[in-house]
Structures are given as C-alpha cells and as structure tokens.
Design brief:
Pfam family, one: Methyltransf_25
Order of helices and strands: HHEHEHEEHEEEHEE
CATH class: Alpha Beta
Structural class: alpha/beta
Largest sheet: 7 strands, mixed
GO molecular function, one term: methyltransferase activity
CATH topology: Rossmann fold
Number of domains: 1
Protein name: Class I SAM-dependent methyltransferase
Radius of gyration: 16 Å
Domain Methyltransferase: 56-144
Strand order of the largest sheet: 3-2-1-4-5-9-8
Shape: globular
Organism: Streptomyces caeni
C-alpha cells in the first residue's frame, strides 16, 4: 500500500466516524491516570522552557488539545480529517484547528515549543515513521519537547469496523525500543518512557515516550 493510499483510507475512515468517535471518547481522559500524568509532565516541561505554541498533531476532535489548553499551554490542533476538524471547531470554538498532514506540516522550521502525537501514528506503516519523526524534529524549536502515545507491540491489525461504522484501517503496534531508536536517529534525546498494561477495552500494552530536541545540533 502506498503512502498516498493509506493516508486516503485513514482520512476517509475518520471522516466517517468523526461524530461518534467524539461522542464515545470525549471524556475518556477522566479514567486514564497514566495518560493525564504524561500529559502533565509534558506540559510542565514545555512551560519550564518558556512556553510557546504547542501542536497537537493528529488531534482528532480536539479532546486532548483542550486538555493541554487547560494545563496552560498555547495549544492548537492539526488533523488529516476535515470532519474531525469540524467537530473540534464546534466543540472548542476558542481553540484553533486546521486540516493538515503530519507528513508535511504547514509550519515553519522551529516554530513549536512542543509537539504531541497522541496515538496519531498508529496508522503509519513502521517504515514511514522516520518521515514523521523528521518532520516533528523540523517544526520543533531547539529545546522543544515531543510526546508520543502509541500501542506497544510488534504487529499490524486490520480494522474494518469501529465506532459503529465500517472503516478500512491498519493499526500498528510498535516496540517502544524501536520508537526510541528512530527518534534518536531523527535527532531527539529520550527524556522518559512508560509502558503500562492494557486496560479494558484495550488489547495491548500502551506506550508513552517523551523526547526533547537538543539545544544544539549534533
């Protein structure tokens, strides 16, 4: 499958499920203490570095974007799905949401103090992760932080029904060690890593990785 085709399928699938995805998951962070903890550490690190714009890359309907806003960050969202962006704009009219692809962000070099990819890499074939990580590195300012959340493992799962709709998605589970290695090759320094056990209805452990773009190039 080409990059173009998997992006098209991802966009179409999330356009289809956008309303029900938002309805079902809007308050899911309330029951996710590890998620809130990692987001809190990320926010503290960004603010300690002086703050600045934070991109929620693959923001979906904006539930995590608004959480970052409540933590004091200057957060905005970007998503591949126009319908997801429409839902986010309606739900959180005080925040900025734009349609865009993580493979080619319409952001200037070094323009972000922080970047978040909250389960938004799960439909990316493993061999294409270096493209995303290089793009994240490009848009982050020196000293900026990146937080990833992903499904831990080492397999591809085909998803044909989700959130009450037929979809066409590949879901990838990544070994945390491999994610860390690829981030290092892209120029990041790992700051922290967490892997927690699956909780219902999850089928796999969940991984979180906080990384930092060095102040000077190496």
């Amino acid at each position: 499958m080409t990059e173009t085709s998997h992006l098209q399928l991802t966009k179409a699938s999330y356009d289809t499920v956008a309303e029900d995805y938002d309805r079902l998951l809007r308050n899911v962070l309330d029951g996710k203490p590890f998620d809130r903890a990692m987001l809190g550490v990320f926010a503290e690190r960004v603010l300690a570095g002086g703050g600045g714009p934070v991109g929620d890359l693959g923001c979906g309907p904006g539930r995590v974007t608004t959480y970052l806003d409540r933590l004091g960050l200057d957060a905005f969202g970007i998503d591949l799905s126009p319908r997801m962006v429409a839902v986010a704009r309606r739900a959180y009219p005080g925040l900025r949401f734009e349609v865009g692809s993580m493979t080619g962000l319409d952001l200037a070099d070094g323009s972000l103090a922080g970047a978040l990819a909250w389960y938004s890499t799960v439909h990316t074939p493993p061999h294409e992760l270096p493209v995303l990580f290089a793009e994240f590195h490009r848009v982050l300012a020196p000293g900026g932080h990146l937080l990833l959340a992903f499904k831990a493992g080492d397999e591809r799962v085909r998803l044909e029904h989700a959130y009450g709709h037929d979809v066409s998605l590949d879901v990838y589970r990544f070994p945390p060690e491999r994610v860390s290695e690829l981030l290092g090759r892209a120029g990041f320094d790992e700051v922290a890593r967490l892997v927690r056990a699956a909780e219902e209805p999850e089928k796999t452990p969940q991984g979180y990785l906080l990384a930092r773009k060095p102040l000077t190039c190496r």
